[in-house]
Write a structure and sequence with these properties.
Helix content is 33%, strand content 25%. With 252 residues, the protein is of the alpha/beta class. The chain has one domain: Vaccinia Virus protein VP39 (Rossmann fold, 3-Layer(aba) Sandwich). An 8-stranded mixed β-sheet has the order 1-7-8-6-5-2-3-4, with helices on both faces. It is globular, with a radius of gyration of 19 Å.
Length: 252
């Protein structure tokens, strides 16, 4: 394994724009949910007429779909991601919209028959229900409770409240309160492994909500300890949490 400083310097300088994690190939690994969200999303897009992808990131998942509806719209709030999404999605005719406040989606009522999202920052269920046409569906993969909590606890110590947030049953209740009927809800906890400290630095720079105030300087002591742990044990193991949720708006 390369020395600590070389790993840190490389990971601290590489770009983290977009939502492509290919830089981590061979350096970290994450088990994928059994339902195969990207392919299932692509199937639904192939039969939709008007689709909206919320929090599209760099458009990576949406761009995997071979067939897109004639009207496909994607929203994103972070400018670097929006620029990356434009590179791949604009040539395919996707309309990109920058949103600053997802609590008010800038679309008229009942315009989309499919709304999708992979790992939305926050779901505003009443807005989702408002923009869905009668009979339309919301199909998404959300981050579940205590996702990668082992990472957070390595740097910050015990997180006793981690299991109280992003609970599937909470989303079910909020979706139903907004008028949607939940037709599928599945949750899985999945193994993650980091094989060098640089992989962890890249992950924390990219997935900023895991450790919002992360900098190499702030957490130098814990990063050095993490490097020693990986050298001694071969990897650092954590677990992500994901759930699939599908809701339908009644025909009337």
């Amino acid at each position: 394994m390369r020395d600590y400083r070389a790993l840190v310097d490389e990971a601290a300088s590489v770009s983290v724009d977009g939502w492509d994690f290919s830089w981590l190939a061979g350096r970290a690994d994450e088990q994928r949910p059994s339902w195969g969200y990207a392919s299932a999303m692509a199937e639904r897009l192939s039969t939709a007429n008007r689709a909206l992808d919320v929090d599209t990131g760099g458009g990576e998942v949406l761009n995997e779909a071979a067939d897109l509806p004639a009207l496909t719209v994607a929203t994103e709030s972070w400018p670097p991601n929006l620029a990356r999404a434009a590179e791949s999605l604009s040539p395919r005719g996707v309309n990109l919209v920058r949103t600053r406040d997802a609590s008010a989606l800038p679309f008229r009522d009942a315009v989309f028959d499919l709304v999708t999202s992979r790992h939305p920052v926050k779901v505003w269920w009443h807005e989702i229900a408002r923009v869905l046409a009668p009979g339309g569906t919301y199909f998404a993969q959300h981050v579940g409770p205590a996702s990668a909590v082992e990472v957070t606890e390595w740097f910050l110590g015990p997180q006793p409240d981690a299991w109280e947030h992003r609970r599937p049953e909470t989303d079910r209740a909020e979706a139903e309160a907004a008028g949607l009927s939940i037709i599928d809800l599945r949750c899985e906890r999945l193994r993650m492994e980091f094989f060098d400290v640089g992989a962890m630095i890249y992950f924390l720079r990219k997935v900023i909500w895991i450790l919002p105030e992360f900098t190499v300087e702030r957490y130098e002591h814990r990063l050095r300890a993490l490097h020693d742990h990986i050298v001694a044990n071969g990897s650092f193991v954590a677990h992500s949490s994901r759930f699939l949720i599908e809701g339908a708006k009644p025909q009337r």
